């Protein structure tokens, strides 16, 4: 029985023949049962793309939607074995919009088969797939030049395509490419050498796969285990469950909770099949420690040397979402077993897929790859992805939609991780006590012309008369100084609010009541501002005026210019405004005087204890 497992990724552009290749390989290896073969013959008559013949692609294209469209949508896994090895084959989508599915398959693969249509050569999607595979640590490519029958089995065509790809792959560093000319439909060079191409002296595809070396995936390093749960089975049993990511651990070994730096001895290694003396990478175990120490879900247990801890990380990011990754916008970063808030504080550059060159960027669009700095709200345990994939990767989640929007592969700690907050003896509470008030941010949001600045001015005037200490931050005024370098596209609007949120926090730390009057059209950025201060210190005030009324008022003539096409990206006209879903104060302005609206806010401040 073969005991060596190889995980194989297949990818390439649409219609290059990935599913046909896998289906033919399964058939040639004798792994297709008779009943499945009968179904395949029947389905080939109905869905097949090879007239009058068996379409082996249908062995893999299992989803009804795929069969009807003739494309692969999801990642389809197939398992088979030969006398020499066991295999897991992943057939990944070729369409650009499904690149995230291909990335998922690449994260666990040992080797990548890149299919190229001999008639088309190396396309941008081929380069994109190779880039993603290399990004996830794959260093051995099999370049399968398919449909050689359609170019007359021309050796010159094959060699030109091979040279083109090898030249491109030199950008990845140390990689190995095995190039094989094939005809997947007919089985040429799949499991045996083809008589149609006597000039080819290399291995058939199956032979190359049987010889390939699996990746280590970081499993041979020091002991690492993410804690997935804490089990309390009676008064005498407390265990920490998880799957060992790398290395091994034995009873009696001393291990450390990396976050707390507290150590304990392994007393038992418990599994469903009984206790182990030693646990190895890939084992699902429950560790019993003595003495019991404080460990929570998401913590990392380790032996020496310990992994790093940091809150600013340099990383490669691949972006999956239609909405771009914007520098400064808050996202959730899901590390193994732990979710942490944060943002991409800097986009160093994005990669040119064709040349692997570096292009300056302030955002990443769908399927783009870039080098970034990630700033997290809390420190996390990490190691570079190339050394330990489990500790070196994170999924990026949109805070509002909860969609997975990107993948981050950690390269190192950013240099700014060496910065540490300085303790100050006088804090905001001491400063606010001198003023007889509680510090707070009054965040006025609404369309242009809604009346935000008018009401905010009246509120500040009332607070001043009451002897309160305030600071007004108005959108137009701030853009004449601090933010004068920013425009009005989405990325600049996000940065505009990020900066003002940080300034507002500084004024809160000074003990002031800060009035912020900004359109601030995006909920995500208003949430970012809220999270910069403590609970109860942020009061969102929605100045709710219908756009028809704002356009009628048009105090600065901006709506007239926007509708005339003289101003672009104007909120409410050709740029979105995301209304607050649950503001602390909702001001509906139609039929109400500005003075009455201001008085409503003053009453609410008294109720909340901001002023007495």
CATH superfamily of the largest domain: P-loop containing nucleotide triphosphate hydrolases
Terminal CA distance reads 80 Å
Strand residue content: 25-35%
Total helical segments: 15
Which secondary-structure class do the elements indicate? Answer: alpha+beta
Number of strands: 29
Which architecture name of the largest domain does CATH use? 3-Layer(aba) Sandwich
CATH class of the largest domain: Alpha Beta
Description:
With 612 residues, this protein is an alpha+beta fold. It has four domains: 5-211, P-loop containing nucleotide triphosphate hydrolases (Rossmann fold), CATH 3.40.50; 224-302, Elongation Factor Tu (Ef-tu), domain 3 (Beta Barrel); 308-418, Translation factors (Elongation Factor Tu (Ef-tu), domain 3), CATH 2.40.30.10; 428-607, Rossmann fold (3-Layer(aba) Sandwich). The strands form six sheets. A six-stranded mixed β-sheet has the order 2-3-1-4-5-6, sandwiched between helices. Strand 19 (338-351) and strand 20 (358-359) form a beta hairpin. It starts with a strand and ends in a 5-residue tail after the last helix.
